[in-house]
């Protein structure tokens, strides 16, 4: 049993090392979570400057999320169809809006 578990964990680790690094992108319509991708969207690793150049100015820049001193500052930019999350200056996630008002509208 222990050997089988070790073999499975080793296989999963090997597969995870070969997978491409992509941001997790989610749609949340009516509370249902589904993976989604837009034809063109910011991807993990892009800088704020690259996102602004490629996608234009966001509708809204939300206040940075406070974090512990040893963690990066999380910034959020709201676009019509998605919200981009940055750790310091780099994209870490793009969350696709599921419908209605973009996420973050009405928030400080």
Automatic annotation (TrEMBL):
<feature type="signal peptide">
    <location>
        <begin position="1"/>
        <end position="23"/>
    </location>
</feature>
<keyword id="KW-0732">Signal</keyword>
<protein>
    <recommendedName>
        <fullName>Lipoprotein SmpA/OmlA domain-containing protein</fullName>
    </recommendedName>
</protein>
């Amino acid at each position: 049993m222990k050997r089988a578990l070790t073999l499975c964990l080793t296989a999963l680790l090997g597969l995870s090392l070969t997978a491409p690094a992509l941001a997790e992108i989610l749609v949340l319509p009516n509370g249902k979570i589904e993976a989604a991708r837009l034809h063109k969207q910011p991807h993990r690793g892009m800088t704020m400057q690259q996102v602004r150049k490629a996608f234009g100015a966001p509708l809204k820049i939300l206040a940075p999320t406070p974090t512990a001193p040893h963690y990066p500052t999380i910034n959020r930019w709201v676009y019509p169809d998605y919200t981009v999350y940055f750790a310091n200056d780099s994209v870490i996630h793009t969350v696709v809006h599921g419908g209605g008002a973009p996420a973050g509208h009405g928030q400080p």
